[in-house]
């Protein structure tokens, strides 16, 4: 049953509706291979047959007791950013990430030197990560957005938001113009307020 749900989910998520001829069999095979444990007979324990491999292979984060398929990407991004970029050898691509990496590394080095007899470098990094994680999270979420949508796509979305905002302002102006009971002075003041309304959507 779980495998059937996975198959239906693949089709509906990718294509929006079920069309048998459009099923992504390669993706379905890959996802099923991650979960199905062929060493277990399905008639004896169907749950273990369909999920045992998935459960056995999942490495849970501290404080996390379960991992859902739709949250796996978040954990992968988290490891990539906080342990391969900030603490690893992978180069940071943005200026913001480079600055955060410098700050966290400097903190790690200083903390390690001060406590060299009691901790290793990884433990020192974890201490500094706990200290700066909220600050670094802004660059982390920017990295996720860049990976999922791409910088150009996000700029297009921001442009669309601005266009919608201007359209709403124009609609308000039309409403004020249509209302006969609004006197000229009130109409002028309302239009000035609408004109002064501004929208700031930034993405760095």
UniProtKB/TrEMBL annotation:
<dbReference type="GO" id="GO:0004222">
    <property type="term" value="F:metalloendopeptidase activity"/>
</dbReference>
<dbReference type="GO" id="GO:0006508">
    <property type="term" value="P:proteolysis"/>
</dbReference>
<keyword id="KW-0732">Signal</keyword>
<dbReference type="InterPro" id="IPR024079">
    <property type="entry name" value="MetalloPept_cat_dom_sf"/>
</dbReference>
<feature type="signal peptide">
    <location>
        <begin position="1"/>
        <end position="16"/>
    </location>
</feature>
<dbReference type="InterPro" id="IPR042089">
    <property type="entry name" value="Peptidase_M13_dom_2"/>
</dbReference>
<protein>
    <submittedName>
        <fullName>Peptidase_M13_N domain-containing protein</fullName>
    </submittedName>
</protein>
<dbReference type="InterPro" id="IPR000718">
    <property type="entry name" value="Peptidase_M13"/>
</dbReference>
């Amino acid at each position: 049953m779980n495998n059937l749900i996975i198959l239906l989910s693949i089709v509906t998520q990718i294509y929006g509706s079920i069309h048998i001829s459009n099923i992504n069999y390669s993706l379905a095979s890959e996802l099923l291979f991650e979960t199905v444990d062929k060493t277990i007979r399905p008639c004896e324990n169907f749950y273990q047959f369909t999920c045992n491999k998935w459960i056995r292979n999942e490495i849970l984060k501290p404080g996390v007791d379960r991992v859902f398929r739709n949250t796996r990407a978040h954990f992968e991004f988290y490891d990539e950013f906080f342990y391969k970029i900030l603490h690893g050898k992978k180069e940071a691509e943005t200026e913001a990430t480079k600055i955060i990496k410098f700050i966290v590394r400097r903190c790690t080095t200083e903390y390690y030197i001060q406590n060299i007899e009691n901790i290793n470098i990884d433990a020192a990094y974890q201490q500094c990560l706990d200290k700066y994680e909220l600050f670094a999270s802004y660059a982390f979420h920017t990295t996720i957005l860049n990976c999922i949508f791409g910088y150009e796509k996000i700029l297009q979305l921001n442009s669309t938001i601005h266009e919608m905002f201007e359209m709403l302002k124009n609609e308000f102006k039309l409403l004020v113009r249509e209302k006969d009971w609004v006197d000229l002075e009130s109409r002028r003041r309302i239009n000035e307020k609408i004109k002064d309304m501004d929208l700031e959507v930034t993405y760095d």
